[in-house]
Amino acid sequence: MSGDALIYILFLAAGFLGGGAYSLWKVNKFASGVLLAMAVIAAAGGILRLV
Length: 51
Hints:
By secondary structure, the chain is mainly alpha-helical. It has helices spanning 3-24, 29-50.
């Protein structure tokens, strides 16, 4: 897998996890926080791969 594909996958994962965290916020705040933390980690990984 090329580096560009990994960057796209990381940013897609961050987007999906962020959306899941937003939709889960009213149901379970702890699970939403976990998804949000995973989204931040995926986005940071994508940014670090860009640099």
